[in-house]
Amino acid sequence: MKFIENIQQVAELQPDYLGFIFYEKSPRNFEGIIPELPKGIKKVGVFVNEYVEIVVSLVEEYRLNVVQLHGDETIDYIKELKQHLPKVEIIKVFGIKDEFNFEILKPYEEVVDYFLFDTKGKERGGNGEVFNWGILKNYNSTKPYFLSGGIGLEGIDELQSFFKREVSQYCHAIDVNSKFETKSGVKSVKELKKFKEILVKKS
Predict the structure, then answer these.
(1) 86-125 as b/e, with b when 16 or more CB fall inside 10 Å?
(2) Domain locations in the chain?
(3) Model pLDDT, residue 128
(4) In terms of pTM, does the model score above 0.85?
(5) pLDDT in tens, 26-75
């Protein structure tokens, strides 16, 4: 999210999370004021290889509930972050293309609250492409994860099929972004509402 009016409009749909990107190279980079949100919506700050001190400062300034790490952050980096922010949830992002070695996740299990699986592409995120969810059949952890990467209205049937398979048992949340944008940082409230209504109706 990026603009106040759009933030308020999307917040009326009562998502579980709203994301704010703090990465200067992103066209969605957030600078401004986060309006008061309805209770129950968690504010997520997205960071890429940022200094711990800056992450802590922004979490405190914006009263973020969750930190999403989208870079090459190490175990030690996350441990240091948790020392400063013991009550903040940590999401670590991993990009998946045609294959993925899930063994690399094991050291992170004790220091993060969730994993997020996104499509590996030229950008750190927002590539608008779906990866092969069948790869998740090799997921060998019980850590809950977010499913991300090019999820939109046209993929609802595939999403419903995914939810019916055992591979989805640890899927905690669906992360949607670029497929619902009218421009960088601006979401179509109409399409998001439709997406939510269809999912709720079919579940």
Answers:
(1) eebbbbbbbbbeeebebeebeebeebbebbbbbbbbeebb
(2) 4-202
(3) 73
(4) yes
(5) 999 999 999 999 999 999 999 999 999 999 999 999 999 999 999 999 99
Q: For Cα atoms 78, 82, 88, give the angle at the middle one, nearest 5 degrees.
A: 115
- 3-state SS of 54-116 is HHHHHHHHHCCCEEEECCCCCHHHHHHHHHHCCCCEEEEEEEECCCCCHHHHHHHCCCCCEEE
Amino acid in position 6: N
Average pLDDT, the chain: 94
Please return the burial class of 173, using the count of CB atoms within 10 Å of its CB with bins 0-12, 13-18 and 19+. middle
Structure token pair of residue 153? 């209205």
Give CA separation, 37 vs 1, 62, 72, in Å.
13, 12, 31
Q: What is the CATH number of domain 4-202?
A: 3.20.20.70
Average pLDDT over residues 92-99: 93
Distance CA 103, CA 99 (A): 12
d(CA 191, CA 97): 27
Which two tokens mark 180? 């619902």
Burial of 84 (C-beta count, 10 Å sphere; 0-12/13-18/19+): middle
User: 49 with 23: CB under 8 angstroms?
Assistant: no
Q: How far apart are CA 44 and CA 173, in angstroms?
A: 13
